[in-house]
Predict the structure.
Amino acid sequence: MKEKKAVYVRAIPGHNLTIGALGVFILWFCWYGFNGAAASDLTQFVQILVTTTIATAAATCATMIFTWIKNKKPDVSMTLNGSLAGLVAITAGCAVVDVVGAFFIGVVAGILVVVAVEVIDKKFHVDDPVGAIAVHGCNGLWGTIACGLFSVSTGLFYTGNFTQLIIQLIGIACIAAWTIVCMIALFQILKHTIGLRASKTEEIEGLDKHEHGLPSAYADFVPVPLVAEMLDPEDVLQEKQKKAEPMTEMPSVPATVNYITSDKKLTKVVIVTKQSKFEELKQELNAIGVTGLTVTQVLGCGVQKGASEYYRGVKVDMDLLPKVKVEVVISKIPVSDVVAAARRALYTGHIGDGKIFVYDVESVVRVRTGETGYDALQDEGL
C-alpha cells in the first residue's frame, strides 16, 4: 500500500502590514462609490453608506476578537481581510437591508473569513496566500444569501417568506455553473499553452527576477548593497576615492614576508543584532573611529528560539529571525571601546538585543599596497 505523503501548510507573512492596511482603507473608501452607484435617490444613497460602514466595521471587529480568542493574539493580517470580507458581504444587499441586518451580515462575514481561510489552506491545500477565495468567494456567497434573509421588504427574517431566499440560491447556482465552465476552459487553455504554474527555479528565485529582471519588487528584500555605499553618502564616497590615487603597478612584496607575524594585536569583533538597530550601531562605531565594516543580512535565533505567532490561521515558528551581522577588524582602537559602543547602541533590556563575539586575527593584508598587520588597517591617506 502506497504511503500517503504528508502535506504541510507554510504561512508566507506579508511584506508590509502598514502598506497592506493602507490598501484596505483605500478599498474601503472607494467601496462607498462602488455600492453607492446602486442608489436611486439621496435617501437610499445615505442608507447604502451607513449599511456599508456598519457591516465592514462589524466584520473587522469580529475577525479581530475571533482570532484573539482563538490564537491568544489578534491577527492583524486576518483582521484586514475581515474588513474586506465585510465589504464584499454587504455589497449585494447594501440598498435593501437595515442597520441591524448590516451588523449581523458583518459579524458573520468576519468569522466566516477566518474559518474559510483555514479550511482552504489546511484541508484543501489550495495555495491562496492572500485569502482571496475566503474574502470574495465565500463572503460573496454569504452576502448573496444574506439578501434573502435580511432584506427589509422581502427577506425571510422580516417577512417569513422564502421566495427571495430561493431566488438568491438560484442566482448562486447560475453564477457557479457559469464560472466553473468558463474557468475550466480557461485553465485548460493555459495548461496546454504557457502552463499553469511557475517552474521550481522561478518559485525559489522569485518571478521578479525572471519576469522583470529585478532582484525584488520590495526594497527591503534586495541584498545589502556594497558596504562602502551603505556607510557613506555617495558624494562623500566618490570624493574619498578620488583622493586615493590608484597605483600604476602592484607593489612587490618580498617572498620572505611572514604574513602571520604582527607586532600589534589584531582583533575581529562580530556583532549580530536586529536590523532596525544598524543605523544606531553604525553611528556609535563611527564616533569612536571605526571606519571599516562588513555588513551581512542573516537569519538566526538565540537561546529563546524566536517566538511563535499566527498568520492567517497558520502557526509561524519564528525560530529564524532576520538579523544584521556587522564585522570589524581593529588594532588601534581598544576592543573594550568597540564593545561598549555596540552595547550603547543595541541595549534595550529585552530578549533579542543581540550578541557580540570577539576573535583573535592572525594577520590582514591590504591588496592595494601589500601592507600587513596594523599598517593594513590604517587609512590616513583617505
